[in-house]
Amino acid sequence: MSAARFELIRAGIAAIVEGDHDRAADMFAVDAEVQRADRFGVVQGREAIRTWLAPDAMEPLQVAVTALEESGDHVLATCDIRMRGTGSGVEVTNTLYVVFTFRGTQVSRMEIYFRRPEAAASAGLGAH
Question: Residues 6 or more apart from 69 whose CB is under 8 A from it?
């Protein structure tokens, strides 16, 4: 199952960078939820996720998936990102750790973390 899940994640992230938010949202179940980084709130439902994916304050320029690890129904993606402020033009780079929880072939939950130990714990992986 890993290969199909990994491909879905890579394709969804590519769609976000390309600005194809409809295609990116299609990887989510209708009742999916996204837990934003550092508890900045939860986005619930595919339609709300589609709206949330559209850039408002930050526009994604590049996202490199540097690692994918699977544990049961969870996949932990390590992503190096480069974004630009839509108003300021300031570029920001960071590493995000994103836990995707699958129900069947769709993502039912996505959690975004700034630190790997928390993401790994959520995904049921060791903190290595």
Answer: 75, 76, 123, 125
Instruction: Classify each residue of 10-41 as buried b or exposed e, where b means 16 or more C-beta atoms within 10 Å of its C-beta.
Output: eebbebbbeeebeebbbbbbeebbbbeeeeee
* Whole-number Å distance between alpha carbons of 31 and 106: 11
pLDDT in tens, 82-117: 988 888 889 999 999 999 999 999 999 999 999 999
Task: Locate 77 and state its tokens.
Answer: 């993606």
Instruction: Please choose, from the candidates 58, 43, 34, 53, the residue with its C-alpha nearest in 3D space to the C-alpha of residue 112.
Output: 34
DSSP state for residue 90 in the 8-state scheme: -
Q: In whole angstroms, give the CA distance from residue 34 to residue 49.
A: 7
Q: What pLDDT was estimated at residue 23?
A: 94
Domains of the chain, earliest start first: 2-122 (3.10.450.50)
Longest Cα–Cα distance of the chain, Å, equals: 42
